[in-house]
Task: structure prediction
Amino acid sequence: GQQLNQSPQSMFIQEGEDVSMNCTSSSIFNTWLWYKQDPGEGPVLLIALYKAGELTSNGRLTAQFGITRKDSFLNISASIPSDVGIYFCAASASGTYKYIFGTGTRLKVLA
Amino acid sequence: DTAVSQTPKYLVTQMGNDKSIKCEQNLGHDTMYWYKQDSKKFLKIMFSYNNKELIINETVPNRFSPKSPDKAHLNLHINSLELGDSAVYFCASSQVDGYEQYFGPGTRLTVT
Result:
């Protein structure tokens, strides 16, 4: 089936550093979403992207919808301890009524 | 003012039993979904419903039967539970196909 390749799988960073992660696919999608999941909770929507090339920010988070429509990137600036968690990308093609999820990036922030 | 809610939060049961998970959304969304998250945290869609109609059944065993009594509710009934059914099950909703999707808190199912 379709897959989203998300990288890196995990990363340890120092508080205050910037973080970058990305998601790639061999298929074209019309919507890209980025989520954060804390232990024992459901994924929380961070950013939604609907247009190729679109760059959207939400506080310290910035995400981009790749121009080829096959990838997306998420950047976190000046990381803080509460940024710890698993970040997922998800993508959907029009009319499919489903989202494909990436395998997640596990972020750990060292104070 | 919870947007997407699920009950129960935890479910521990024995093999062979039948159990149900309930989901409700108060966002006025038309589309609802069930996802399964395995022990490696991989999220996979199981079903999607639009306006109470089943749209997607992602090759889920027919022991799993979703039901949508109205647009705000999507329940999941599981017959003859197996060990491999142990996972976290998430309900989600979106206004329309391909739009922002919001998740519930999850139901952790443990089959012994």
In short: Chain A has a mean pLDDT of 94.
